[in-house]
Write a structure and sequence with these properties.
By secondary structure, the protein is an alpha/beta fold. It is built from 25 helices and 15 strands. A 5-stranded parallel β-sheet has the order 1-10-9-8-7. Strands 2-3-4-5-6 form a 5-stranded parallel β-sheet. Strand 9, helix 11 and strand 10 form a beta-alpha-beta unit. Helix 8 packs parallel to helix 10. The protein starts with 10 loop residues before the first strand and ends in a 10-residue tail after the last helix.
């Protein structure tokens, strides 16, 4: 070593939270003791979408994919014995970000941080609503009011909590939804422009302080397995951000123009088949965002090797933390300047990404900006199309995934020998305990103060004042997550985002003899046998899981195979799904759930179908469903269960036709599909 000072490592986080505030608090304290240097809070879906645990849509979702935080008492318990002044806390929260930040602030005040001292709080609220409309589905309010909430939070934190990053613009989820590197850069940058324009135009920040706003904008980026391209993408991101902040906003301080980003490496590419291969994928993806000093992430969190199987255990999360620690502390990575500086290969790739991304940003600007491109459905349909093309390449074998479509033979895996023990399960009785605690909280609070705080919030929302002060008072008054959200729903309304399915082009060829042509023939013959024009498939997403990528791809391929597809988007109750199935007289119901609430919601759909006399409609389920759960669903009457290992969508559509024939007592067709 040349005697030069080693660089400080990036912030090391593990994305965590489950069951209850108490259980999550214990996990956080264990992780911090293992050398983790920041907290990354995962909230459950009711918290993310503004429902209390006792709401009908929250059923089966409480404490599943994160921690339920319904009020100040939960937030207090979540951070018990963790000094917030010393923490750097990232909160993955978007539609309800203002509310969760208010709860966090009040807990910090209770820990003794007040007035000036609040300025010492450090962390990030994700707060990027655009990618919720496009990929993750935890939006609540329409684009206009959502942008106002974001703007109000940014101006509040710049003035009151200056070290806080009030927004983390996420290209991560865009890649999960199918984005190419160019789309990932262009859509994230266009979102940042929409946010900064809104803050500037709100008049809440004086011109001379605008550099402080730009300096607090951070990004949350995905790193896929295409190592060179991903590393070049990060350099392109930095170059474009520097240009946009200088030219569009006149920021002269280079420090304020720095591209600041954190990373969760790609979960989309993690496989259920041969899951041990995920470890090397995770390492390679981490290297893409750490090797290059000039484009190095400020914070990194890695998924666990078994994420495609279910909820990782503490040991699995520890393994991912140790991967980071080995790189930072055992290797010599942090001893050198940028090792890619001067590479003509890297420079050429970065130049190409910059040029293509700027061209796409111009196209979005011509449409009226990111919000207009969301409302028109342009961004969503582009992502659905890119994702369909990627799926088609995987199915054709042009894009190779080890253990999935190539090198599929494998030795027995000792890591998954006990598959039900290889993941963590949430106690089904947990939900009832959380609901009981919520009712107790409501019974014991100062009711007049809570009512008054909600009335003041609605009044502020109907006017133009910054909503953060009214929200902080709601937090202090014991208001619940659902009550805060419903008060704003009453004023702002709710938003159902475009699905992008109808406008997606055909991604798979169907020339004679191809798998899709054979399934089309099977679909047409079955429709003829049943005496109908076309087979009808209802694709439903019960509960609050907004990850709709898989459901959209099934819907698009079924459409291309000759089905009439009924797809109404996300967040439906079992009752709504059954009503639609009966009203549309469908031949099959396909349910997609990735959040783990399948054990509760799928049987409910079956029971309701039987009650309406439509028990001859086969129900199929897809998602991250452990084998024991899949067996239970089959016993309950589900016709077929598909998980991430079933990557051949055309084959899945063929199986759906088979199930429709079986349910209608038709002979199996000897069409090889």
């Amino acid at each position: 070593m040349s005697g030069r000072q080693k660089d400080r490592p990036w912030l090391m986080r593990t994305y965590a939270g489950h069951s209850t505030a108490e259980a999550s608090n214990e996990l956080y304290r264990r992780n911090l003791a293992k050398g983790q240097t920041g907290l990354s809070v995962a909230f459950d879906l009711p918290t993310q979408t503004g429902y209390d645990p006792d709401h009908v849509l929250a059923r089966g979702e409480v404490g599943r994919v994160g921690v339920p935080v319904s009020h100040l008492g939960d937030m207090r318990r979540l951070f018990q014995d963790i000094p917030l002044e010393q923490m750097n806390t990232s909160m993955t929260i978007n539609a309800t970000a203002m509310w969760l930040l208010a709860l966090y602030q009040v807990v910090a005040e209770e820990q003794g941080l007040d007035g000036e001292a609040l300025g010492r709080l450090q962390g990030t609220t994700q707060n990027d609503i655009v990618k919720e409309y496009l990929s993750r589905g935890t939006h609540v309010f329409p684009p206009g009011p959502s942008l106002r909430l974001t703007t109000d939070m940014i101006t509040y934190t710049v003035n009151r909590i200056p070290k806080w990053n009030p927004i983390n613009i996420c290209s991560y989820h865009l890649q999960e939804a199918g984005a190419t590197p160019v789309q990932e850069i262009a859509y994230a940058m266009s979102t940042a422009v929409a946010v900064l324009d809104a803050v500037r135009d709100s008049g809440q920040v004086p011109e001379e302080k605008f550099g402080a706003v730009v300096a607090r904008i951070s990004f949350f980026v995905n790193a896929g397995v295409r190592f060179i391209e991903e590393m070049c993408k990060m350099r392109a991101f930095g170059r474009i951000w520097d240009r946009v902040t200088r030219e569009r906003y006149g920021i002269t301080d280079a420090k304020q123009r720095r591209f600041r980003y954190g990373v969760q490496v790609n979960s989309l590419g993690l496989t259920e088949a041969q899951p041990e291969n995920n470890v090397q994928r995770i390492v390679l993806e981490m290297l893409a965002v750490t090797l290059s000093k000039d484009a190095r992430a400020r914070a990194v969190q890695l998924p666990a090797w078994n994420e495609a199987l279910g909820l990782p255990r503490p040991w699995d999360q520890q393994w991912s933390l140790r991967i980071q620690q080995v790189l930072a502390h055992e290797s010599d990575l942090l001893e050198y300047e940028d090792i890619f500086a001067g590479s003509h290969v890297i420079e050429a790739k970065v130049d190409e990404l910059v040029a293509d991304s700027l061209a796409e940003m111009d196209r979005i600007e011509q449409m009226g900006g990111a919000m207009a491109a969301v409302e028109s459905g342009y961004l969503k349909s582009e992502l659905v199309s890119s994702h369909a093309e990627r799926r088609a390449r995987i199915e054709a074998g042009d894009e190779k995934i080890i253990g999935v479509n190539v090198y599929e033979t494998t030795e027995p895996n000792p890591l998954t020998a006990d598959l039900d023990g290889a993941i963590m399960t949430v106690d089904p009785a947990n939900e009832a305990r959380v609901v009981a605690a919520l009712h107790e909280w409501r019974d014991n609070r100062d009711e007049p103060r809570a009512t008054e705080a909600l009335a003041a919030l609605k009044k502020a929302a109907a006017g133009t004042e910054n909503l953060m002060e009214a929200t902080v008072e709601c937090a202090r008054a014991g208001v619940t997550t659902g009550e805060w959200s419903w008060a704003l729903r009453d004023v702002f309304g709710e938003f159902r985002a475009p699905t992008g399915v109808s406008s997606a082009p055909v991604a798979v060829t169907a020339e004679e003899g191809s798998p899709l042509a054979l399934v089309r023939e099977k679909t047409a013959r079955t429709a003829e046998d049943l005496g109908v024009g076309r087979l009808r498939l209802l694709v439903g997403k019960p509960g609050l899981d907004g990850h709709s990528n898989g459901a959209e791809q099934i819907a698009v391929r079924a459409r291309d195979a000759g089905f009439e597809v009924v797809y109404q988007g996300i967040r439906l109750t079992p009752e709504q799904i059954v009503s639609a199935a009966v009203a549309e007289d469908v031949h099959c119901v396909g349910l997609s759930i990735l959040s783990g609430s399948h054990a509760e919601l799928v049987p409910d759909v079956l029971v309701r179908l039987r009650r309406t006399g439509a028990d001859d409609i086969p129900v199929i389920a897809g998602g991250i469903i452990p084998p024991a759960d899949a067996e239970a669903l089959i016993r309950a009457g589900v016709a077929a269960v598909f998980t991430p290992k079933d990557f051949g969508i055309t084959e899945i559509i063929g199986r759906i036709v088979d199930e429709i024939r079986k349910a209608n007592k038709l002979d199996p067709l000897e069409v090889p599909a």
